[in-house]
Specification:
Distance between the termini: 13 Å
Shape: globular
Structural class: alpha/beta
Order of helices and strands: HHEHEHE
Radius of gyration: 14 Å
Strand order of the largest sheet: 1-2-3
Largest sheet: 3 strands, parallel
Number of helices: 4
Helix content: 25-40%
């Protein structure tokens, strides 16, 4: 599960912490996974306010050549830890399909879940 594109500002805003070495560690982990020889998929739960088509495309570029990239619909719940998320409306199907379309050129298989 990769939280956002691998730009420091976007990633740290999404996870809520600042860690200078985080992006290089994540990139290293992606490389290890992609070259491990085992089955894998990279997932991204797409949350309005944190993600948009451009960021999804940027993340697809960050994992270019990946076997599978799954864009998951955000599911709103009263039990969200972040109070902001309790009022967030998920992206509609058309918006999700547009994000998938923008990611597809960079990965072998892109799916919506």
């Amino acid at each position: 599960d990769i939280k956002n594109c691998l730009q420091v500002e976007s990633y740290t805003r999404t996870i809520g912490i600042q860690e200078p070495l985080m992006i290089s560690r994540i990139k290293n982990s992606i490389d290890l996974i992609m070259h491990s020889g085992i089955e894998y998929e990279f997932r991204k739960t797409v949350v309005p306010g944190f993600h948009n088509s451009g960021r999804i495309e940027d993340l697809a570029k960050d994992i270019k050549g990946a076997k599978r990239y799954v864009l998951q619909h955000f599911v709103q719940s009263a039990e969200m830890l972040n109070p902001y998320l309790k009022d967030v409306k998920p992206f509609c199907e058309e918006e999700m399909l547009e994000m998938k379309r923008r990611a597809e050129p960079f990965v072998q298989n892109c799916k919506l879940r």
